[in-house]
């Protein structure tokens, strides 16, 4: 048998078609090996070979880790194969929906009277509206439903709201009107309360941060440190400029020493790089919110840090391989929040909106504040809008999820814009693509009517009450 096999192999080798067959076989084995490795490999670029279609704008950064969405074992409630995707959505977005006072939570549809509506549109399941890997069906905000989905439940709204009678069935989500989950800046009472405001408020200022109140861990403001108290290991050479920078920071004034961030105190080895977990010791809220945004979401699932070359927006080529962790915006030992507020953003972002910032009125106000000629809180940096200051249990803190108020953009109106502008002007500017592209250097060309409509509705209700009271 061995002689026959050897004879057949020699005959094949001498055949003029042998090189072609060997090349074909090698190519196929290589393809099979690549896809086979991708199937069993940990989270890595090779995993993307198995993607059934392009991932949405919100999730493409974690597409290398299929298990981020498809692993039933990651559910806090235990494995549930049939609901694994729903579990994944709630695991990442549940807290955000709670903060937004979700206007369409699943529990809203448990009433048996909604059974017929749920048969048409299962509003209790995230995947009814948001599916992945179907780019040909995906609209803005990751929607994979026709734009008339509101109509299925609200088709009779014109009977109670005469102002809605001439509106198209797919216009509910028009800018400044309604959003499915988050209507904090759009519900009628809020709109009416801000009716009649001027475009530019007389008192225009951002709320002051209460940074100290939001910190924890090794933070000890009662034990400030001097430069001679730096506790880096004696065997570790440290540049004097580094020590000088550290000694002037809030870290030194708060008792945060070298080993708190770099290790080397006996429990851990010294590290030149500062891990995100070190920052988390004191800045837990900031780190947690950073990991829910696009800058840090890869770190949240154990993937390497995001780099600008992986972004879908235009970025400066020189920063292509910069790793987006805490030090990307707070570098060195100065941790300069003024640098982090604008220059850190502009060193990477190269889209029209970002490039227009330096010539905008907002940037002029920011420069005046930095120069001391403008009041504290009167300047508008990138962070002023994209890292909003939120009132929490411990005071005003900075939300480091830079996507939190981008979709829907009306969220920015309440959290940011209305500190300086009237609500109608804010909603109009956010809805105007030309105004957004110019970094709001151009005033909105059209005005959103929802504020006036809400005010007119309340006036109509009051008129009806007054008429009833006048009846004998």
UniProtKB/TrEMBL annotation:
Single GO term (MF): metal ion binding
Domain of life per record: Bacteria
EC class name: oxidoreductase
EC number: 1.7.2.2
Cell compartment(s), UniProt: Cell envelope
Record-given protein name: nitrite reductase (cytochrome; ammonia-forming)
Cofactor: heme c
Reactions that this protein is recorded to catalyse: 6 Fe(III)-[cytochrome c] + NH4(+) + 2 H2O = 6 Fe(II)-[cytochrome c] + nitrite + 8 H(+)
Membrane spanning residue stretches: 21-41
Record's GO cellular component terms: outer membrane-bounded periplasmic space
Keyword annotations of the record: Calcium, Electron transport, Heme, Iron, Membrane, Metal-binding, Oxidoreductase, Signal, Transmembrane, Transmembrane helix, Transport
Family per record: Belongs to the cytochrome c-552 family.
Main localization category: other
PANTHER family reported for this sequence: CYTOCHROME C-552, CYTOCHROME C-552 RESPIRATORY NITRITE REDUCTASE
One GO BP annotation of this record: anaerobic electron transport chain
């Amino acid at each position: 048998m061995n002689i026959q096999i050897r004879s057949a192999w020699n005959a094949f080798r001498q055949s003029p078609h042998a090189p072609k067959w060997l090349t074909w076989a090698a190519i196929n084995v290589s393809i099979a090996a690549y896809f086979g490795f991708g199937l069993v490999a940990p989270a890595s670029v090779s995993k993307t070979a198995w993607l059934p279609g392009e991932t949405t704008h919100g999730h493409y950064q974690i597409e290398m880790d299929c298990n981020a969405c498809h692993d039933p074992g990651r559910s806090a409630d235990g494995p549930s194969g049939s609901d694994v995707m729903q579990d994944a959505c709630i695991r990442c977005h549940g807290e955000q929906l709670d903060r937004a006072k979700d206007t369409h939570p699943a529990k809203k549809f448990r009433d048996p009277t909604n059974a017929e509506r749920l048969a048409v549109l299962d509003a209790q399941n995230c995947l009814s509206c948001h599916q992945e890997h179907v780019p040909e069906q995906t609209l803005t905000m990751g929607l994979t439903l026709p734009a008339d989905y509101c109509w299925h439940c609200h088709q009779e709204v014109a009977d109670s709201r005469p102002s809605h009678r001439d509106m198209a069935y797919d216009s509910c989500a028009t800018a400044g009107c309604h959003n499915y989950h988050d209507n904090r800046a759009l519900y009628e009472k809020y709109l009416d309360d801000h009716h009649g405001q001027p475009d530019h408020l007389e008192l225009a200022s951002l709320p002051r941060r209460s940074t100290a109140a939001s910190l924890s861990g090794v933070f000890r403001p009662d034990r400030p440190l001097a430069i001679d108290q730096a506790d880096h290991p004696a065997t570790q050479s440290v540049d004097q400029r580094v020590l000088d920078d550290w000694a002037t920071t809030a870290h030194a004034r708060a008792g945060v020493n070298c080993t708190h961030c770099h290790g080397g105190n006996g429990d851990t080895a010294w590290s030149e790089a500062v891990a995100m977990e070190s920052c988390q010791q004191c800045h837990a809220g900031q780190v947690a919110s950073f990991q829910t945004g696009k800058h840090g979401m890869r770190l949240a699932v154990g993937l390497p840090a995001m780099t600008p070359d992986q972004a879908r927006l235009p970025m400066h080529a020189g920063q292509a391989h910069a790793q987006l962790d805490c030090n990307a915006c707070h570098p060195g030992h100065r941790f300069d929040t003024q640098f982090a507020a604008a220059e850190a953003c502009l060193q990477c972002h190269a889209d029209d909106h970002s490039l227009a910032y330096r010539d905008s009125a907002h940037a002029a106000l920011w420069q005046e504040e930095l120069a001391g000629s403008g009041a504290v809180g009167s300047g508008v940096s990138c962070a002023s809008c994209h890292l909003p200051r939120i009132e929490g249990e411990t005071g005003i803190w900075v939300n480091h999820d830079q996507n939190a108020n981008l979709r829907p953009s009306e969220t920015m109106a309440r959290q940011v814009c209305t500190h300086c502008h009237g609500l109608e002007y804010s909603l109009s500017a956010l809805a105007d693509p030309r105004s957004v592209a110019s970094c709001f250097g151009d005033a909105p060309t059209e005005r959103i009517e929802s504020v006036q409509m809400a005010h007119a509705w309340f006036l109509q209700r009051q008129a009806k009450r007054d008429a009833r009271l006048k009846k004998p």
